[in-house]
Specification:
This protein starts with a helix and ends in a 7-residue tail after the last helix. Helix 1 runs antiparallel to helix 2 and helix 3 runs antiparallel to helix 4. It has four helices and no strands. By secondary structure, it is an all-alpha fold.
């Protein structure tokens, strides 16, 4: 798991979710029942494809975290996850649990200005 994967999970996916919520608020019919599932699936499919292209073009490793505390927390979480991944494997329950805990802890630093 590299920095771009963590960025996708913490920032990109949150942006896509927020955009879908705004879309469903603007056009409620698109969020209704099975239509909502289809629209969400299509949006996630295409935004994942878009992210793959962006990942090839933009070096996400050069994105600077402005706050030193956030930077240290992010780096520490990445190191802990990497150690667990090497010791137990990325498919292990320990890694999945630690990744979910770190995503939750780091998500408090993600804020979108309105």
């Amino acid at each position: 798991m590299d920095l771009s994967d963590i960025f996708k999970q913490l920032v990109w996916d949150a942006l896509v979710k927020a955009a879908l919520q705004q879309l469903f608020l603007a056009v409620p019919l698109l969020g209704w029942g099975p239509i909502g599932y289809v629209v969400s699936w299509i949006a996630v499919y295409f935004t994942d494809k878009l992210y793959a292209v962006i990942k090839l073009v933009v070096d996400l490793e050069v994105i600077v975290l402005r706050n030193e505390i956030h930077k240290k927390e992010f780096a520490g979480a990445a190191v802990r996850l990497k150690l667990i991944a090497k010791a137990k494997g990325v498919d292990s329950e320990e890694f999945k649990k630690a990744r979910d805990e770190q995503k939750e802890a780091l998500s408090r630093f993600i804020q979108f200005a309105r």
